[in-house]
Structures
1.
Amino acid sequence: MIPRYQAVLLSLMLLASVVMSVVLWQLLERAHQRMLVGQDSAPTQAPEVAPTVQATLLVASDADNTLLVQVQSLPLPQDPGSRARVILGKLMDLYAAPDADHPVPGGASSIAQVFLLPVPNSDSNPASSSSTPVAGKPARGQPKPAESKATAPMPEQTSPPPPGPQLAVVNLTGAFAASHPSGLETETLTVLSICGTLHANLPRVTQVRFLVDGQPRTTLAGHADLSRTYLAAEAVPRP
Amino acid sequence: MGGSLANNQLEKTITLVLSARLRSLLEARGIPVAFTRDADATVDLNRRAEIANHVNAQACLSLHASESGGGVHLFVSSLAPAPPTRFAAWKTAQSAWVTRSLGLAGSLNSALVQAGMTVTLGRTALPVVDSMTCPAVAIEIAPERGPGKKITAELDDPDYQARVAAALAAALLDWRSEVRQP
């Protein structure tokens, strides 16, 4: 005859074993269900290719401190924020090309995100923000006929845009800011070309702010002020 | 500010040498000059504007150097002109002076072009200049370039710096005489 306390201990251990078995069985079932769900979400169709539309880029030139209009056909997503990021990425790719007139390393990956927000305290009057884009003008002189296509059609708006002017928050990567050439002209042109390109393709974007790695930053590379809110109209340098 | 340039040069070194040349040319003509720094020292951006504002200068120049572009780049604050007020906001103090700053930039442009240099004009948002209460222009020196963007004079070329300083001094002399006229 075993002592009473050993019988109680043995019973408790037996009960614990049963409970643990049940819990383990349930965990196994949950893991199996998760695996099945994962298989269901696996892509079974090829991703759709976004329709190609015309995008207007304001490309900077260091030689004469101008922004020149270039119209490019790009496959653009429907979401305005994603669309803005793709367009700015193309602009950065042009600057990263070996023979660029405004050489800046980094390319498309320099644009981490673009967020579009309603302008605080705006009057929400679409008419007041749908003025003709002014960012397509060069800084000096007349536009070059071969390159200026200021009347190029804007990208199609497939979904109804939100009412009122918008603030675009452009999040740049720290690597881009760190590798950007230092200088008043080159930094100013980069900022203005981003602002002008955004406004040319998303006319409701009237204000632009910049972040670097998600944080506010004083200047881009020691000169151009990144702490302020830029008005899209300022994308036209006034001599 | 201390941007890095080609050949291990520093922007602050180039601008310090240029400012010393400009100072000697102006003082030789009887024009007093106040500097935010006359040695390799770090001066806070706000402090620079404070120094400029306290001397009540007839012209304020912010000197810079860059490898980008060519010739001399002249920049005026991108702030919209505004009437002067008794108490100006620090970050937009230049707005009451923008019109006169554009006039100063025009004088500098004329003198530099007359000296045979390539000049580009622009507007920018530069924190130091935006806080100045004087006619203010940011001047950025870039290498002198010939056809095909080939560099004909580097930033540290003494002859190039002397020509730029001489043109700036001539422009400031003209500007001073214009300001003195009723």
Note: The longest strand of chain B covers residues 60-65.
2.
Amino acid sequence: MNKEKFLYPPGDFSIWIIIYIELITFGLFFIGFAFSRKGQVEVFNASQLLLDQRFGLVNTILLITSSYFVVKAVTIIKTINTEESFQKASVYLLGAIGLGGVFLIIKIIEFSDKYSQGINLSTNSFFMFYFILTIFHFMHVVLGMIILYNLYLNTKVGLYTKKEHRGLETGASYWHMVDLLWIVLFPLVYIIR
Amino acid sequence: MANITKVWIGLLLFTLFAFLLGWLQIIGSFLVCVLLITTFFKGYLVIEYFMGLSEVRLKYRLIPTVWLGTILFFIAIAYY
């Protein structure tokens, strides 16, 4: 096995530049949220009570499990290359897309619920951050699902193999980043008070 | 059980723990600290095992891990 392969992160290196930029961008929003809260603790705590933490819990489980499915698909392709393994990996990817879809549906229900209560971006600082962060993240999930769908199509026809799976790892890395961002977002927005 | 499955179960348990803190409204200064530490571990598990960075050069592993630590550190500073 080529040792050089392990010197760099999985997938195309350009995706890692994008991932680092995304992490910094979201990171600044996270810090902005935390320090805005410091000046308006009561407003933030009262507003947080209007969120349903169960949505946050289910969405976290969905994204973590979806990421897990993607890891399983990548592992299969990197280990075995048979018609059966291509099908099995593609089923895992389809499962990951499905879970991402349920995540989006729950977010839409949550957004609709807030709008129906007359809550929007201009309600207060908490909801300004809440909508900016979660809508921005929502868009990343949508893009991630489009990427996963392409990976699914390619995997199904056996385009990725034990020797050449860079494209699969590139898309997978992006999806894991989406998961990583939510892992910080969930306690910050829904739990910490 | 494969390592990756254990990581997945660990992530789910940490998530459930965080949810229970919020749901039972028992979260205070100390538990916020515990929550941030468990969030760091969750992120670390994703970085190392899901992103697969445990097998690459240290500097590439460190970038997202340092990012995670820094963000959570600033959140803690802002909280306390």
Note: The first helix of chain A runs from residue 13 to 39.
3.
Amino acid sequence: MKVLVTGISGALARLLVRKLLKAGHKVRGIDKRPWPDPPKGVKVVRADIRKRPAEDVFRRWKPDAVVHMATVTHFTVSHEQRYRINLGGTRAIFEHCHNYGVARAVFVGRHTVYGAAPDAPLYRTEADPPLAAATFPELADLVASDLYAASALWRYPDLATSVLRLVYSLGPSARGTLPAYLSSGRRVPTVLGFDPLFHFMHESDCAAAIVAAVESELSGVYNVAGPPPVPLSLLCEVTGRRAVPIPEALFGSMLGRFGFPKMPRDAAAHIKYPIVVDATSFAETTGFEAEFDEVRTMESFRFA
Amino acid sequence: MTPFPFYASRQAKARVDLLQLPFNRYGLDPFGIHKDSLVRFYTLLRLMHARYFRCRAHGADHVPESGRAMLIGNHSGGLPIDASMVLASLFWDLPTPRHAHGMVEYFAQEWPFVSPWFSRIGQLPGLPEHATRFLENERLLMVFPEGARGTGKLYKDRYTLVRFGTGFMRIALRTGSPIVPFAFIGGEEAIPTIYHWKALAKLVGAPYVPITPYILPIPRPVRCEIHYGEPMVFKGTGAETDEVILAYVEQVRGRIAELIVQGRESRRQRLDATGEGA
């Protein structure tokens, strides 16, 4: 299968490319960021996914499947920019998929779209509404792009679309939202008196799950997870970090200072309450099983 | 990582090992229950259960040894000592201990220290999603269908049952779970609520703050009893009309009222025998 990966230079995308190649697929990618030494046979087009050169890849190469990973988070770009890239980019990709006869599209989203709230169920199913825009407004663009991507399901019925809501990825690359939170100076700011469950999966399993989605006849919205969640305190302990509990009133003003990572203030909700997903439907449909359990996942990050 | 700064007894540890819970290498189950926290929690409960409240269980053999079931009972007393004593009773009084999952008021989730405390012992907010998931995982669920209306009863209304919610019955039907009714006796004497301090309740986000004749809502060391009834099985899909559901709920409520009468009588006899008044 010819698989086009947008946002191919990201850490998880690079892992995905290696797995796709191993499974015998042909891979090409689009990204604004460079990937200086991609594996042999992988061509990376340096372009903005909303611009003409990106469309040309569809026109000339005619991919069978597209994995859309070119979304950005608050760690990299400003709020306004994010809206444009995440929504405008997603729209462009799905339109190209439709216009150039792509059979399958996989949108790689995040489980954080469900949002963390005290009155939310511990295990979220795909039927639960995404609340993140209310509890953590900085994530509004990700919620919007997740829901927008799912609209392709009725907009383009002959394109098999799957929207994946992946739990946090963790692993030796130390890239992504959770590692960014855990990595700065080994001191992890937590909210005093709270210890939520964190749901994560080994980055290699994240990539494997995306491959499973590409190779199956998946169509719909799916939560993707592997091992069960663990409390934040244990996550800090096993990854060799020191949890520094901060009273909630001071939490916002401590971020970005005293060696703590820079985060939006509203991120506190995600450090107080759990976001855990029920991924049985994905596992049943694709037969996906995670290779790494929670302990090996944490250790792979710690001893990378 | 345990939020319980309390010692762990050997007996509690031995009994936690007998629980049918799928703990991983770190003693965690998929719902976030932490084994070590559970041991400490039950050690503390043992003191309250056996020494402070001198709880006695009747008909504990009505609780199924394994598999899904719903424990439905009356709320007794202004603080959730009834719930914790039922948990203790299921853990300490049964031949094979069982761990029950309570359905907690939402506000408890927002309180620092309290929220992880409840989470590590599997007491989650009272959402239908949680109830269904626990039962589908063959767990024991403990529900007080009176809700906060029930714990908020004043002393003068003791052992009356306020309106029952009906959600539990639909979940029981949908998941095919037997209902074990029970009556808790003693809580209302332990914390006799004479007044609700509404202003403070509003400030801390609780449904009410009980005030006792001695001001503070500290439970008195009175004897408590738990009376379990035989399991009630209702057949249905959970999609019945409200009238049908209400009739089923009334049956459960009626059975609990009977158990309360039986329990109060049994407690009175026990107090007469020991020469205690309350």
Note: Chain B has ten helices and nine strands.
